[in-house]
Request: fold
Amino acid sequence: MSIGNNIARLVLYGAVLLFGLAAPYLFPAYVSQISVLWLMIVFALTWDLLGGQMGYNSLGNIFFFGAGMYISAVVQIGLVYDVGVYTAAFGGGEFAFTPEQYFTGFWLGMGAAGVLATLFAFLFGLIVFGLRGPYFAIGTLGVAIAAGELVGAWDWIGGGSGISMPTYPGGPDEAKRFFYYLMFALAVATFLFLKWLYGTRFGLALNAIRDDEEKAEGMGLHTNRYKRVAWAISAFFLGISGAIFGNMTGFIEPLEVAFPTITFGIFMVLMVLLGGKGILWGPILGAVLFHVIKEVTWTYLLGWQWVALGLLIVIIVVYFQQGILGWLMEQRPEWFGIRVEEKTRGPAARAGAPRAEAAE
Amino acid sequence: MSDAIIEVRGVTKRFGGVVANEDISLDVERGRITGLIGPNGSGKTTLFNSIVGYHPIDAGVIRFEGREIQRLRVQRIARLGLLRTFQQTRIYAKMNCVKNMLISVPHRKMGFLDMFGRHTSEDLEKAERLLDFVGLYEKRYLLAGDLSFGQQKLLEFAMALMNEPTVLLLDEPTAGINPTLINGLIDRLKRANSELGITLLIIEHNMRVIMNMADKIYCLAHGRLLAEGPPEAIRNDQRVIDAYLGAH
Reply:
C-alpha cells in the first residue's frame, strides 16, 4: 500500500518535473501561457496557506505581488539611473542597461522584493490579524486597493502610466525561456517549502487555528505569531513572483498589472476553491484547471469571457464549495490517509499500525 | 488554606446590568480536587472565564502561584500552566485524534524556531499513551469531529493532560457522557490528580460525582458565594439544598 503510494508519488513528481523542464521546447508557441500557469500555481499555493490551512480568507494577497513588482523595478532602475528621470521619460530616452547591469539589478531586485514583501506582511499583520472572518477579508482587500491607488498617484514611480522595465539582454525567445524557468523554479520551490512546512508543528498549528482559534489560544499556542509568520511566508513567494512577472511582461502599471484585485486577486481564491482548499495538491489542480478553462474561454468566447468566468464563480461557490479534491476526500477518505470506520487494534498491534499521513 | 495555588479575592464581573459574579473569594489548594457547584446561571462558568483570562474582571484580584494574573491574556495564562476545558467541548474537528494531541504539547518554552520543528517520537508516544489512558487508543486516527460528544470530551481531557498543566479547570466533565462510563472518568480524573499531581478545579452538576471526588466544595448562587466546606457539610447545608430545590 505505502510502497504503491510512493511509486505513484514518484511518477507524479517525475512527470510534473519532466513537463516543466521540457515544455518550452515541446510547446514553443505557448511558453508565456505556461509561465503564467506556474505563476497561477504560486498564487493558489500561497493563498491556500492562509485561506485553506489556516482558515483566514485574505482578499489582499495580491498586494504582495504588486509590491514585489514595484520594489524590483525601483531597485533595477535605481541602481543605474535616477528613478524619477527614468519614469518621466515614459519609456523614451536613452536608458540602456548592459547585460551586467541588467542581471545585477534583476537578482538584487528579486531578493529585495522577497524580503520587503515579507516585512510588509509582518507590519500589516500587526493590524489586520485583529480582524476575523469577513472583516479580515474586507480589511485585506482594502490594503490591496489602497496600494493600487497610492502607487497610481505616485509620479516618482510612474504613477498611473506605469514603468517600462529594462529589456532583457538577449533575443525575445531566450527572454521567454529565462522567465519561464524562473517561474517554474519558483513554483517548485513554493510547493516543496509548503510541503515541508505542513509536516512540521507549524502545519498542525495552522490547522488548529482553522478548526478552533479560541481553543488554540486556550491551549497556550502563540496564535498571533503563527498567523503573522504564515502571512509573511505567503508574501515572500508572492513578492518574488511579482518581481519575475514584472520583468516578464516588460511593462508594469498599478491597476491592471501590479494590483489587479478583480482578476489575479480573485483568481487566487477561485483556483483554491475549485481544486479543494486545505489539501496540498488542491490549489495546484485548481490552478491548472482554471488556467486551461480561462485560456479556452478567452480564445473561443471572446466578449463573453467575463460572463463565463462569473458563471464559474457562481457554480463553484453555490454548488461545489469543497472543491474537486475536497469532494474526493469526502467520497474516498482513505485515499487521503483519513480513517472513518473503527479499527480494533490494541497496543500489541502498535508496531504494525500504519501511521496517518498528512493529507496530500 | 496555607497552600493555595489559585487565590480569588473579591472578584466581581458584570455584563451590562447583570452581575454575573459578585465579590467572590475562594482558594484552590495545591494538589487537591476542588469542586464548584451551583444552580444554572449562578456564575460558575463566568468565574472560570475570569480566572483563565477570557474576559477582564471589574474588581478583585486573582493570583496563580502567588502571581497576579487578572490582567494577563488567555495564552499567557495557559502557558503559565493554568488550563481549562470547555463546557461545550472544543476539539480540532478536522484533525485526527493523534494530531489533536500533538499540537497540545506544552507551549511554555516554545521559541521562534521551535515552530518549525517536527514532533518527536516521545511526543507521539506520550500522545498514544494518554489516548490509551482515556480509552480512545483504538480511535486515534479518526477525525476528532467524527467522535461522539462523550468521546470528544475524553479527547479534550487527554489534550489538556498532554499540555502538562499545573492546574486544570474542568467545566462539567461528565455532562453528556454515557452514565456507564462516568465511573471510569471519575477514576481517571482522580488518577490525573494523584498520579500526575495535577490540581483540579471542577464545575459539576452531578452531585454524586462531585461529592465522590472533591476535597472541598464551593457553592455559588445568583452570582454570590453561598457556602463552602467539605462535601459532607455541603451536602447537609440547608442553604445549598434550598438553592437547588427552591427558587431556580
